[in-house]
From TrEMBL, chains A, B:
CDD domains: NUDIX_Tnr3_like (cd03676). InterPro entries: NUDIX_hydrolase-like_dom_sf, NUDIX_hydrolase_dom. One of its GO terms (molecular function) is 8-oxo-dGDP phosphatase activity. This is Thiamine pyrophosphokinase-related protein-like protein. Residues 104-267 form the Nudix hydrolase domain. It comes from Setomelanomma holmii. Pfam families: NUDIX. It comes from the Eukaryota.
């Protein structure tokens, strides 16, 4: 079965919108707030997660709380503890606190990331966009907790506290795709996508968790480079493939891409004139949904 | 005085968002509905416009109504009667009816358009994005009713009933910029922008009218072409200039661009890596606002 591109967007941007049908689901979640900003909701928490939180030691402090949540062993999500810290921002874009990323979905706070698409024009010049556009697409390892075996962005990763989109994409490009810093610095920063995921099948943990996400998007034009310009460097990637646009579209229609990476790929195809309203009448709704307005403070 | 890019976006996307402050303004408008879809709001009408509508002959039929509105001479907006028909769509993307475009803002219905940015890379190859990016920018004639003397997209226009984005951009490119169809067909269709304007200073008519708009965006890469590749053809354009990116940014900061064309230009700069979060921390909000979710049925 093949899915429409809009169907695929709805997998990554699954959190209901306000209005008929959506309001009741939204009201199911408990609002996560901090004392310093009593009227700002920083995230949405599932009611049974909130119940567990009440009984934990650590009280108002996020690090002891997440450690205690890990210690009780109730949340499968926390089995993949990463020992990193991701930022949570306040209404003036100030850093409020940092949180272990595996615990972010339990609090429903916004997570920031970077995604880069490495591509080349083959058999024509880039100027006239003749020839064939090809994209480097990695397949995730079968051993990964989240979305094993699915297709991914050329390079991607989460943005830790203190990191910048550039420092993050440079590090991840080396770690995941053996790309040298000098080359990655030729990438173009081409905007952001914002969407509201809800954990489910493949997320590697509890379902129904609110996961608002924003990603800084990069393009890396490797026209003239050989197919092995990106190669695996660690065990997160099983293999890289150089896919043509029709092959990318086929894989999208089969839901082979990790949900948020499908958005990155659709944004890439739209920006490069490879997916137009003539082919996908839902393209405008796709553009709106992947630039979703969030009611949380954002960086 | 120089304005931030986000300030400029807020001029084009001026209609308030729901929530504190916005709700009361939104509730000021009368909902425009048709009998076939009693629960779908097609547009927002200012209360005093709605009062006038009640007293007009023509009743439920849009064409006699707009003609009667024109006849009473109460609305300055209708002095620029265009004698064209723009589409209004229903919840299933079906054409419900067509409306004279000068009257669209009185009913607050969504208007569709096209905007193309013609650009070239000068002094470097397009592949490595070295050299200088330049954009053809027309200045609107001083005699135009709407936004005289302001800077515009390279080419732009409204989408009439029965037209397609491509047929529209091809016709407007010939009419406004003397570009031949064969060249325009090399353009790339690179997405849509959606925003909610409110008529004000420069709109050439009543203020406070709701003007939800969606534009199909095209890029035309004219690297290697001379500066006079675009030339005026009718009296809508005073002159074309080939501006560098710093010149475009300066003009944006001085509010020299027609509001919606400022959005088109910002979208172009972001997609081409010329405006990044390092320069404009509000870039993500800009992306969200120019892909605004509308609560009207859309094509």
């Amino acid at each position: 079965m093949s899915y429409s591109y809009l169907d695929i967007v709805k997998i990554a941007d699954a959190f209901p919108y306000p209005g008929p049908g959506g309001e009741s689901t939204i009201n199911d979640y408990v609002h996560f707030r901090v004392a310093a900003h009593p009227y700002e909701t920083l995230g949405f928490i599932l009611p049974d997660v909130a119940d567990t939180l009440k009984d934990l030691p650590g009280g108002l402090w996020i690090s002891p709380t997440t450690l205690a949540m890990r210690a009780i062993g109730r949340f499968r999500l926390l089995n993949k503890w990463r020992g990193e810290l991701f930022p949570v921002y306040g209404p003036n874009k100030e850093l409020l606190f940092s949180i272990e990323p595996s615990a972010s979905p339990l609090f429903g706070v916004v997570v920031y990331g970077v995604n880069m698409t490495a591509f080349r024009w083959s058999g024509g010049s880039n100027n006239n966009r003749q020839g064939s556009l090809q994209v480097w697409v990695p397949r995730r390892s079968s051993t990964r907790a989240k979305f094993p075996n699915m297709l991914d962005s050329s390079v991607g990763g989460g943005l830790a506290t203190g990191g910048t989109p550039w420092s993050c994409i440079i590090r991840e490009s080396e770690e995941e795709a053996s790309l040298e810093e000098g080359l990655v610095r030729c990438a173009q920063e081409v905007g952001t996508i914002t969407y509201f995921y809800v954990s489910g099948e493949g997320s590697g943990g509890e379902s129904g968790l609110a996961q608002p996400e924003r990603s800084y998007v990069f393009d890396l034009d490797l026209t003239g480079f050989p197919p092995d310009a990106l190669t695996m460097n660690d065990d997160s990637v099983a293999a890289f493939e150089l896919l043509t646009v029709p092959e990318v579209k086929l894989a999208l229609g089969r839901k082979e891409f990790k949900p948020n990476c499908a958005l990155v790929m659709l944004d890439f195809l739209i920006r490069h004139g490879q997916l137009t309203v003539e082919e996908e009448p839902g393209i405008q709704e796709i553009s709106v949904r992947m630039h979703r307005k969030m009611d949380f403070p954002l960086r």
